Amino acid sequence: MKTIGRLKIGIVGCGGISRAHAQAYRTAGAPIALVYDVDRAAAAALAQEVGAQVADSLRAMAQPGALDAVSICTPPAFHLEHCLPFVRAGIPVLCEKPLEISVPRAQRLAAGVKKKRGLFMTAYCHRFHPPIIEAKKLIASGRLGRPLFFRNMFAGKFVLRGNHRANPKLSGGGCVADNAAHAVDIFRFLVGDVAAVQAQVANLAQQAAVEDFGLLFLRGKKGCVGEIACCYSTPVATNYVEVLCEKGTVTVNYWIPGRPDIAYRIEGEKEERTIDVSKAPDRFIAEIAHFLDCVRTGAKPAVTVADGLASAEVIAAAYASARTGRLVRLP
Ligand SMILES: NC(=O)c1ccc[n+]([C@@H]2O[C@H](COP(=O)([O-])OP(=O)(O)OC[C@H]3O[C@@H](n4cnc5c(N)ncnc54)[C@H](O)[C@@H]3O)[C@@H](O)[C@H]2O)c1
Fold it and tell me: Atom of ligand 1 at shortest distance to CA of 178?
């Protein structure tokens, strides 16, 4: 078993999300040793913030033994080429979502991971969001009965111009590839795999080559249906995950002033109950603590490359449905 304090951690891609990773590693007592970015100034800025060295190249970072673990925080279209050198070198990888920009590329990454049997975790951080964990426990306890209807909204204001998300060759799409990918993973986590999807995408308010609005209707393999809405152009939005079941309903509210993080009501009860999650660690801290536990113990991560591939398949099916207007069944 390795001692956390002695782990050498690397980050590839020194933009927005790398800061959340760096802070979570620091909280776990595993500071960043090496960073790399194609933009040398971005790498130098993160290195200075976290007291790390800038690597000369990704290849230099991905030598066997150079690192104990790495976070890949680059745009989705680079995940395949940035993860595989570490996978081949036997270095555990935490790869940001979405896994890749297409199913074939996600499959190639999954095949590379399977071949080396290394530790690989897809960074679907909402699996570590304390209210989502409580919702999962409630559903698993059977108190709410069988899940029938899943509803999720992830909307807000995100300016596409100047961001890698505006370029579909880098991002794979707009808010569907970005936010609905999280939502699909939450659906799979709470109510099971997806059997079929029907979707609409649109450019409602931003001039961009990718959509700023998406609406997905899901049919689950276990009989639960779902609707997912996502948007990049609505600054005031009600972000939530809600699961309506045969005997009750649970609602997770995201950052809505005045609303509890999680509330549920069971048939026959007049009062809504809430669960206090204010003392639980934030989802990035919990995600990276879990990843490091796996690095230390060799345990299988809670979110695997197969989960990343499964979401990629649903997102590709959603885009196919939006193009054709048809329901698309998953393999
Ligand atoms: N889990 C979450 O909630 C969450 C939140 C934000 C972003 N993300 C994901 O994290 C990833 C990065 O998103 P971001 O918002 O940090 O993007 P960003 O554009 O802010 O940063 C990406 C960084 O990667 C660098 N980069 C680009 N091409 C590179 C290359 N070939 N080699 C090395 N570095 C390269 C860029 O210079 C930039 O510094 C995406 O997959 C995104 O979907 C996840």
Answer: 43
Is 0.90 topped by the overall pTM? yes
Measured from the Cα of 78, ligand 1's closest atom is: 31
Of 11, 34, 96, 99, the one to substitute when testing ligand 1's pocket (max ligand atoms within 8 A of C-beta) is 96
Cα angle: 64, vertex 67, 68; to 5 degrees: 105
Q: How far apart are CA 184 and CA 176, in angstroms?
A: 10
Q: Are 97 and 311 in contact (CB under 8 A)?
A: yes
Distance 72 CA to ligand 1 centre (A): 8
CA dihedral over 62, 66, 69, 72, signed as positive or negative: negative
How far is CA 326 from each of CA 100, 132, 188, 196, rounded to the nearest angstrom?
A: 24, 31, 22, 10
Q: Which of 137, 69, 70, 128 is nearest to 302 (CA)?
A: 128
DSSP line for 177-206: IIIIHHHHHHHHHHH--EEEEEEEEE-SS-
Q: Give the separation between CA 192 and CA 186, rounded to whole angstroms.
A: 9
The strand pairing partners of 26, in sequence order, are none
Taking the CA of residue 79 as reference, the ligand 1 atom at the shortest distance is 41
Beta-carbon count within 10 A of 117 CB = 9
Please name the amino acid found at residue 35.
Answer: V
Give all domains of the chain, ordered by start, each with its CATH number: 4-126+284-304 (3.40.50.720), 127-280+312-329 (3.30.360.10)
Residue type, 146: R
If you measure from the C-alpha of residue 163 to the centroid of ligand 1, how many angstroms do you get, rounded to a whole number?
10
**Cβ neighbour number for residue 297 with a 10 Å cutoff:** 10
Tell me the CB-side half-sphere exposure of residue 148, using CA atoms within 13 A: 8
Orientation of helix 130-141 relative to helix 181-191, angle to 10°: 30
Which pLDDT tens digit goes with each residue over 218-274?
A: 999 999 999 999 999 999 998 999 999 999 999 999 988 889 999 999 999 999 999
